Amino acid sequence: MKFKYTKLVSVRREIHNFLHQSYETLQNEAVEIYTGREQCSIAL
Fold it and tell me: What domain of life does the native source organism fall in (predicted)?
């Protein structure tokens, strides 16, 4: 039972880390797109 519980916790941690990384990547991409758009509008 204890083994199952620790495995579950580690899986949860992995999912959490994965989601956190994905979220940060999305944020960075959104910022890049936004700044790119601003530069385009300034150029226009």
Answer: Bacteria
C-alpha of 10 from chain center: 19
CA distance 3 to 25: 33
pTM of the model: 0.55
Instruction: Give me the DSSP letters along 2-32.
Output: HHHHHHHHHHHHHHHHHHHHHHHHHHHHHHH
Q: What b/e readout covers 14-40, taking b as 16+ CB neighbours within 10 angstroms?
A: eeeeeeeeeeeeeeeeeeeeeeeeeee
